[in-house]
């Protein structure tokens, strides 16, 4: 099969190693059969941190998936031709940087990577590039040079583009045959470098994994999503842009850079909410034809017996920790950051505990979240187990609870555990899910897959969630997924469900769920009601509405929405958490047959939301379209 796209450059901060969500997206896209059948050559470009021993060890580790062919920091030069050696050395000398060129594994295939360490760059070149950014895009770098992150991605852009030229990647290719995909704002400076150095010679895509300005406004105010999205909805009615409603955001460097994404040939958004947030930025964004390129999820065929086997391990762990065997296992796997709104889980659990008590059932919620992604030393975890019953008990003065963990445990988890009758919350603030990482009381056979396979409910009621891969990963194992109605995955779930109904794999009738008042849908750009495809009781997906005001009220204007504060949001959370708990309780499997049906539905949904589906139906068509321009 002839490949239709000769060259794709992915500009990303996760070029060298998977760090977070964008790394998961890259793993998903770059390993698919359809991508590799259609794209001839792929190169990931991004930063390298020579002073970070952990990253350098990872790049050195032959088991880490990276094969180094050229690196002045590693003293490796002869994995490339003499011509390329000379070209890369010339770039290093010109910009006073260090380059690494190699190959990295993605599933069963390898792709090239080009990384740059700019610890001591030639500042004349940086200053010159900043001038061009101001002249061509109006970006005033002097306003942001206090920020190390901004400085880094501006500094590495020119060396990365020059390094690509030294590799000869674009030789013999026409402009429509070479594409740069900028993953988030961090990749845009590489696009700008290409456009400045070789105008009209490259196609470019801005891949929006979030809307940075929207995230900032949501997280930094006590009204959170309730305030922001009500303001967005009222502003949309009046055709008012974000800066008019919230004031000039030009002091925020991410806002200034993302505004220039309109100079790309296409913009991809990972969810419906992100697309609306970008359009809210106004100007050229208002009518920009933004492509929806949802994130995909993995799927695994499991039996009821497999699911129960994993659940038994989680039940045994609860019995060891808390002295009882729960009927239901609830989970939340997330980063310990404010956007994940973990306190909302506790609010829902307050109501679920009452329902569980009335039914004579028990449950446990395992929250796997940490402010320390690298994890604590296993020896420390074992000592805390013995000293104060970790992870049931925690302390904040010895390296156990840090950052947001401390507030969440003492303000939410501990009070709940003291008052609840038929459920408890266990905060496991440790990277990994195994006895080796989480202490001797965890079953020896426990693995991370158990927290997915054995869960009856995965929480994910974020105040800001561009897509929400973790929230819906559990679907394929038959778990209920509970998300907030600003979660970007909702549109994809609805789309997948509708397709399955058409194929006769799911029953028609009823509705997917109540998203929000009919005229206030976040996920639908025109605000109209969505078509309904599934009955509530049959669908393992619960959407919590923290946007709709009580009794169908709504602010009369964007300015009135700005008055929504933390107190109003908390009242809405209390009201919504009760109805959310009721819908969850109705859908919890009451028999082995119900569990089998939820596995069937979840597996079918996950199969329709795979990375192959995303690449074939959205990502590649978007690239092909701009390559025809």
Indicate the topology:
Elements: E1 5-11, H1 21-30, H2 33-38, E2 39-47, H3 53-60, E3 66-71, H4 82-95, E4 98-106, E5 109-117, H5 123-137, H6 148-155, H7 157-167, E6 178-183, H8 188-197, E7 203-208, H9 212-219, H10 224-238, H11 242-246, H12 253-258, E8 266-269, H13 272-280, E9 291-292, H14 304-322, E10 328-335, H15 342-359, E11 363-370, H16 378-388, H17 404-419, E12 423-428, H18 435-438, H19 448-453, E13 457-460, H20 469-473, E14 480-484, H21 490-502, E15 541-544, H22 558-561, H23 566-587, H24 592-608, H25 611-627
Parallel strand pairs: 1-2, 1-6, 2-5, 6-7, 7-8, 8-9, 10-11, 10-13, 11-12, 13-14, 14-15
Antiparallel strand pairs: 3-4, 4-5
Account of the 3D structure:
This protein has helices at 21-30, 33-38, 53-60, 82-95, 123-137, 148-155, 157-167, 188-197, 212-219, 224-238, 242-246, 253-258, 272-280, 304-322, 342-359, 378-388, 404-419, 435-438, 448-453, 469-473, 490-502, 558-561, 566-587, 592-608, 611-627; strands at residues 5-11, 39-47, 66-71, 98-106, 109-117, 178-183, 203-208, 266-269, 291-292, 328-335, 363-370, 423-428, 457-460, 480-484, 541-544. The protein has 629 residues and is of the alpha/beta class. The strands form two sheets. A nine-stranded mixed sheet has the order 3-4-5-2-1-6-7-8-9, with helices on both faces. α21 links the parallel β14 and β15. The radius of gyration is 25 Å and the shape is globular.
